[in-house]
Amino acid sequence: MAEIVRMPKLGFDMQEGLLVRWVKQEGDSVQKGDILAEIETDKATVEVEAHGSGKLYRHLVEADTSVPIGDPIAIVADEGEDVNVDELLGSSGQKEASSSAEAKKEAPEKKEESQTSESVESSSQTGERIKASPLAKKMAEDHQLELADLSGSGPGGRIVKKDIEAALAAEKSKPVEKEVQPEAIQRPTEEKVEALPQAIWQADYQAPKDQSVPMNKLRQAIGRRMVESKQQIPHFYVTSSVNVESLMLLYKQVNGSLPKEQKISVNDYVIKATALTLRSFPAINASIKGDSIVKHGAVHIGVAVAVEGGLLTIVVRDADVKPIRVISDEVKKMAARVRDGKIKPEDVEGSTFSISNLGMFDVENFAAIINPPEAAILAVSSAQQVPVVEDDELKIGWRMKLTLSADHRVTDGVEAAKFMQTLSKHLENPLRLLL
After folding, report:
1. Domain membership of residue 394 as a residue range
2. Burial letters for 194-222: b for 16+ Cβ neighbours within 10 Å, e otherwise?
3. Which end of the chain is more exposed for a tag (fewer CB within 10 A), N or C?
4. Are residues 345 and 262 part of one domain?
5. 408 is catalytic
């Protein structure tokens, strides 16, 4: 039976995506899970998968077209099936598809401009328009590359991500010529500082010039959402110092018997413990929708992952019922796809609660900003050996600070404190997390 493929929604504030290219062409055989197309958003390049098998019956939009979320982009049908497209799409879908086709016929110039809102012109000698994806253009701007100097390997000579990466690799392989600065403007060595009066060397020294670097799209999206969150959500914060002596011991014992690619991180234990805790606190595993509080039945944990130029949140679905090794494996695979720029829609959408972990950077304590429309986020700091008092004796113990940022419209201090108490108990008895 024929089914409609729609532009997926990737994130709370996504309104549309740019269909960069079709991987499958009309008439191509399709198996469930095959990549049909690539789309670009403010955050990343995403692969759209087929949810069924058959053949790609028809493209409803062309490559290099911006499409609102939820709009039809293709039809997948059974082999030999004759599809009534108008009937399948219905009056609304038919109108969208026909208006899109009409726009392509009547305004080819506008379509060419939309091929990338950021398509740029080459040198004034030729006046030719250079086709480049938004991601490629952003990378070129970030690394100060001239698109006019590059050759595109995409459809119709379009410059894509791999062309930029190839140019950067070639640039790195070139021998670096050291710039010789006049002695007068070099930073003085310690010997010079000692030998010369301060007034003399300060007069000779010239500081490097300021640089103005435009924000990339991901940085803009993060900034927009975080400003909205801090302005519209009444944050409050609860911090606990958790005894992770048993957790660190178990962490070392378990990983000692596992190959490198299967090792379980401290963050995997935190994800599992948080998910189990959220079962008992549905008001924190919640979001606001209009004048209602939606208490989510499923526990989908969002995990912040650092990428070039910002952060993306990957989603571990049903983390409360998954074994910790499954959680660990999923996080590794999703993080790899994020960093390769090949994420799937389900990798980054649908979280009900988020975790931001800076423990690997030796951070003692911090507070995170809530990721709307969620009601809370957990900030995880480093597990550290610190002086502690036990039974009136001063000892060295493992402690880790956790800070819950919560929406005061949804929950209150007492409930947040109880949440942290329960979470601490799970982490202080980590063997239960493996069961």
Report:
1. 234-434
2. eeeeeeeeeeeeeeeeeeeeeebbbeebb
3. C
4. yes
5. yes
pLDDT tens digits along 317-369: 999 999 999 999 999 999 998 888 778 888 988 999 999 999 999 999 999 99
Residue 192 inside a domain? The answer is no
Catalytic option among 51, 59, 408, 426 = 408
Q: How far apart are CA 400 and CA 361, in angstroms?
A: 13
Q: Both tokens of residue 38?
A: 């690539």
Q: Is 431 exposed, middle or buried (0-12, 13-18, 19+ CB in 10 A)?
A: exposed
* Selection from 129, 103, 127, 126 nearest residue 116 by Cα: 129
337 lies in the same domain as 265? yes
Q: How many residues does the chain have?
A: 435
Alpha carbons 339 and 337: distance in angstroms, whole number: 6
Q: How far apart are CA 306 and CA 359, in angstroms?
A: 13
Q: Is residue 388 part of a domain?
A: yes
Is 240 found in the same domain as 135? no
List of E strands, 128-171 = 129-130
CA triple 336-339-343, angle to 5 deg: 75
